[in-house]
Fold this sequence. Notes:
The chain has helices at 51-65, 106-129, 138-176, 184-209; strands spanning 4-7, 11-12, 14-15, 25-28, 36-37, 44-45, 70-72, 77-79, 83-85, 88-90, 96-97. It contains four helices and eleven strands; from the N terminus they run ββββββαβββββααα. Helices cover 50% and strands 14% of the residues. It has three domains: 4-65, no CATH class; 67-103, no CATH class; 104-209. By secondary structure, it is α/β, with parallel strands linked by helices. Residues 1-49 and 51-64 have low confidence and may be disordered. It has a three-stranded antiparallel beta sheet with strand order 9-10-11, with no helix packed on it. The chain has a two-stranded parallel ribbon with strand order 1-4. A two-stranded parallel sheet has the order 2-5.
Amino acid sequence: MLPIERHSGCRVSQGSAGTALSSSIIISKSPFHALTASRQSGTGSVGVIPPVTIVILSRTEQLGRIHLVYICKKCNREIETPKAWLWRKYCPTGHRLLDDAIVRSFWGSFARTFGATFFLTVVTVLGVALNPDFVGTAAQRRRFEKGVGELFGFVLILILISGVRAFYQANSWKKRGGAIQSLIPRVRGKGFGYLGAVILLTIYLGPAFW
């Protein structure tokens, strides 16, 4: 892909095989401008292409360059090209790179954590509480519901502890410094995702069990 440059007009040069061309693509700001081509050296072809096509090609090139950035927590450095063995990733010194070593944005981590935690907790708790195979007297049923409420409270405590642990990691990595600080937005988003899930679960499911 040729370098992209914005201008009032559009031009591109296209050469045949084995011919070196010095050319650039200029994207028109106006949708009514066409893309023209001109030769600077060698042989080439001249054509007309809508500017939208060039915009799409430039976006495709940008997307093709997107790759996951790993941070080795033990080495405290960024790994551009981790070693791969089957589905596993390793840093050059042999430390395994898990999913939590990938640099992500705050909101991306928040959405993933909140959604997964809320959905799995609701499905698990309601699946146990609404078990149609339960058979027993009214007293046994009440004891069963009380046990489900205690289970729900225990799950909330575990989620809350996971959130506190995430904030502790973010604070320790900030003090440590280095490349590992790139993981702080991810782990903070994870912590807030856990806390948000606890609050919402308490509001919607708490009154049903307590």
